[in-house]
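Structure ticket #2291
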Amino acid sequence: MDGTPTDPADVSDQRTAAQRAASERAASLRAVFASSPRPGQSPEVAAGPSTFGGGRRPGDDQPAAARPAARPAAEAKARRRRWPVPVLVLAILAGGAAAAVATGKVHIARPNPAAAEGHAPATPPPGPNPAGSTVPATASAGAEAGPKPTATGRPNLALGKRAKASSLEAAGFPAAAAVDGDLNTRWSSAFADPQWFLVDLGAIRSIRTIRLRWEHAYAVSYRVDISTDLKGWTTVYRTTSGKGGIRDIPLEPTAARYVRMYGTKRNSVYGYSLQELEVR
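Resolution: structure written out below.
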């Protein structure tokens, strides 16, 4: 048949030419893949030696020390790309701090002098209870000196009112000192039993709480009486184990004009000493 080689030598030559063409194509593909940059590799490094000029690149004739370093150049370029990032972060942080200062939302912690000196921090006073409720308070020898709000928040009806006492330790400790609202003053009796202290509210009032603020010389055995006319007395509290300090006596709403503390036994050789008697 025409065009079909019949000589075995011709067949072998054709196969050899086909294999040579396939090898050349494979070599070309390998050269293309070899010259392609890998992930994270710069094109200059990936390119390798150039094929022109007999397989040498421009500058290959120079000494190694004179050739440009590819790695330092790449690292410098990467650093140039990275430097705006920290600057941008710092700018954002500075802007947030300025906004917080402008809006007044910056909290600056201040040292607690009491904690630094080893003292316990002061406890804030309790808030008011629902209207009409009363909360009895127990006596405390180490109670704080400042006035405390009562459960009802009512004013002190005994403040500045006329007061009397069975005796005085001295002229500097009058009965009026126990109703003047000043905890630096006090009434103090003679050094004997029994003794009494009385306050006139000026009119018949509805009272709910009586508070006694004892000084260091306090009554161990005493009672608290109320009256509307100085004739009939009603005892609303009695104890034989008084502890001093602050003693709150809660009451149901009760009509009274006169309130009296009647002591029968002291805790020491001194007299009875009241810093304040409050009625609310």
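Closing remark: Residues 8-35 form the longest helix (28 residues).
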